[in-house]
Amino acid sequence: MTVMTDLGVDLGFLKLKNPVLTASGTFGYGLEFEPYFGLDKLGGFVVKGLYFDPREGNPPPRLVETPSGLINAIGLQGVGVKAFARKVLPKLRGLGTSVIVNVCGADDDEYLSVIEFLDREEGIAAYELNISCPNVKKEGMCPALFPGPTHQLVRRVKSASRRPVIVKLSPNVTNIVEIAVAAEEAGADALALVNTFLAMAIDIETRRPRLANTLGGLSGPAIRPLAVRMVYQVASRVKVPVIGMGGIMTGADAVEFMIAGASAVEVGTASFVDPDAAVRIVGELGAWCAAHGVARVRDLVGTVRTA
Amino acid sequence: MTIDRNARVLDVQAWDDYRLLSIASPEIGKAARPGQFVMVKVADRPFPLLRRPLSIHDADVSGIRLFFKVAGLGTEILAGKRPGDPVDILGPLGKGYTVSGSLKGTKDYLVGGGRGIAPLYFLGRELKALGAEVVVLYGGRTRRDTPLAGAFEAAGLRLLCSTDDGSFGFRGFVTELLGRELAGTPADMIYACGPDPMMKAAADAARAAGIPAELSLESLMGCGIGACWGCVHRIRGETGEGWVKICEEGPVFPAERVVWTE
C-alpha cells in the first residue's frame, strides 16, 4: 500500500515545505521562472550570487557543453545588493517559499558589507555563503580551498549576521571533509555542496580554450557521482545539516543524495534544460517515497547501508 | 512563453546540411513574432543536455517552422526527426524585430546568410502584409547554401542572392551586396541576422548610408530564459555599456546599441 509522504524537512534554523531548493546561478533571481510554475511549490530557492556592487562578469563565450554537462565561466555578473534590495527583493516577498541569498565577496570585508546591508532587509530566510566560485579569480582561487581562510571568514560572518548562514563548499580540494569541519567549527548553520568542478575545454582546430576565461566550472549529470561521494563523506563527519547538489536531474537523483546524507538538495543545471525541472523533481521525489512506503522524506537522510 | 511537450513534427525538408522542420504547436505559433526564437530539446538523455536555440522561420495558428544547418551533435539529432515525431519546445522567447503600423511606401532590406536567413521569411511576410516593399538579400558560400531562394520568391518577396564563389548571384559577401544596393536606392530600414562579423558589416553599411538597422545576434545559450547569463553580447545602454543577455533583451538589437569587441 502507498502512503502520503510528509515532504517537510527541518534544517534546525529553517523549516522547508519540501527538501528541493534551486541552486544559485542557475535560477536567476527567481522571477525568471514565474511564467513556468508557482515558486511556492519549491522548498525554496537560492538567488544568484550577490557582490556589494554591480559586477560585469566575464566576456563571452561563457558556456560550453561537454559530456554530460556544461562548463560555465559567467563570472558572477550581477546587479549588486542595492539594486537587488530595491528592485528584486520586494517582488520575492510573499511568494510563499524560502528565499536564500547567495553572498559573494572579493575579500572577507566585502562578504561582511553584503550581509550588513541585507540584514536590514526583510524577506530573506538565510544566507548561503559563496566561498567557492571558481570563475572569478585566477586559477579558481577562493577561501573554500583552505581550512584556515574558511574558518576565519565563516567566524566573522557568523558573528555579524542576524540570519542563519549556509556555507557552500568547493569540490576542488584534496580533502573536502577538512574544509567542512573548519566551516562547522566556525559556526556554519549548514553546509551546501558541491559547487562546480574547475574544468577546461579546448577547440582542437583552433587550439584555443572554448571559454574566454580559459577555465570554468563543470556542472550537470557528469559530476553527480563525485558530488554524491563528497556529500556522503561530509555528512558522515559533521553534525550540521548538509544540502546536497551536483547534477540532480530527477527525483531518483534527489533520493540518492538524501540517502548519502543530504537533508535537502539543490537543483541546478536541470533548470536550464527544463525551467520547471525543480517542481517536477518535487513530484517525483514524493512519488518515489510513497511507492516505497517512506512516510517522512527526512527518514531517508543518511540511510546508506555501507556496513 | 510556453513549454510545449506535445509539439509534433509535421514535415521535414532537407537540402544537404540544411533542414526545414514544420512543427504543430498552436500555442507557440499563435504567440510568435518575427525575430523571436525557441529552445528545442534535442533528446531526453544526459548528452546532448542543453536545448538548442533556433530562430522561428515562420509561424501561424497551427505551429511554427524552424530552419537550421547541421553544425554539431544537437542539430544532427534534430535533423533526424521524422513526421510524427514528438518534440519538446520552449518559446516563443526573446524580443524580435520592430514590426508595426502601416508601412505603405517604405522600403526595407532584409539581410541574411546561410542559416541566418531563418527569421527573415517570417519578418518579410509580415512587413509585406503591412505594405512595405521588401528586398531580401540572401547570401551563402555557394549556391547550395541558399536552398530557400525559391520559397522567398514564392512568397512574393523580391530576392537578390550572393555567393562567396560566385556560383549564384552576386560574387562576394551579402553585406557587400547590401552596400551596393544602398548606393543605388535608399531604404527606410535594414533588418539582418547572422554571425557577428556579418552583423558588424551590415551595421557599418547601414551607418554609412544613414539608415537604421536591427540586428539579430547569435549565441550559444544555456537556458534561453535569462537565468544562466551565458549568452551575453556587449551592448550600449542608457547608463553605459555592459554584457547584456541576448536571450532576454535580444536577440534583436538596434545596430547603434551593439558594441563590437573583436
Outline the secondary-structure elements.
The complex is a heterodimer of chains A (307) and B (262).
Chain A: E1 9-10, E2 15-16, E3 20-22, E4 44-50, E5 63-66, E6 69-72, H1 80-92, E7 98-103, H2 108-118, E8 126-130, H3 147-160, E9 165-168, H4 176-185, E10 190-193, E11 197-199, E12 202-203, E13 208-209, E14 216-219, H5 224-235, E15 242-245, H6 251-260, E16 264-267, H7 270-273, H8 277-291
Parallel strand pairs in A: 3-4, 3-16, 4-7, 7-8, 8-9, 9-10, 10-15, 15-16
Antiparallel strand pairs in A: 1-2, 5-6, 6-14, 11-14, 12-13
Chain B: E1 2-15, E2 18-24, H1 26-31, E3 37-40, E4 52-55, E5 58-60, E6 63-69, H2 73-79, E7 86-93, E8 107-113, H3 120-129, E9 133-140, H4 149-154, E10 158-163, E11 170-171, H5 174-184, E12 189-194, H6 196-209, E13 213-217, E14 232-237, E15 240-245, H7 246-249, E16 252-254
Parallel strand pairs in B: 8-9, 8-12, 9-10, 10-11, 12-13
Antiparallel strand pairs in B: 1-2, 1-7, 2-6, 3-4, 3-7, 5-6, 13-16, 14-15
Structure description:
The complex is a heterodimer of chains A (307) and B (262). Chain A contains eight helices and 16 strands. Chain A has 307 residues and is of the alpha/beta class. Chain A has one domain: Alpha-Beta Barrel (TIM Barrel), CATH 3.20.20.70. Chain A has an eight-stranded parallel β-barrel, surrounded by seven helices. In chain A, strands 5-6-14-11 form a four-stranded antiparallel β-sheet, with no helix packed on it. A two-stranded antiparallel sheet of chain A has the order 1-2. Chain A starts with 8 loop residues before the first strand and ends in a 16-residue tail after the last helix. The model of chain A has no long low-confidence stretch (mean pLDDT 95). By secondary structure, chain B is an alpha/beta fold. Chain B has two domains: 92 residues, Elongation Factor Tu (Ef-tu), domain 3, CATH 2.40.30; 112 residues, Nucleotide-binding domain of ferredoxin-NADP reductase (FNR) module (Rossmann fold). Helix content of chain B is 22%, strand content 37%. Chain B is built from seven helices and 16 strands. In chain B, the strands form three sheets. In chain B, strands 4-3-7-1-2-6-5 form a seven-stranded antiparallel β-sheet. In chain B, a hairpin with a 2-residue loop joins strand 14 and strand 15. In chain B, helix 5 runs parallel beside helix 6. At the A-B interface, strand 5, strand 6 and helix 7 of A face loops of B.
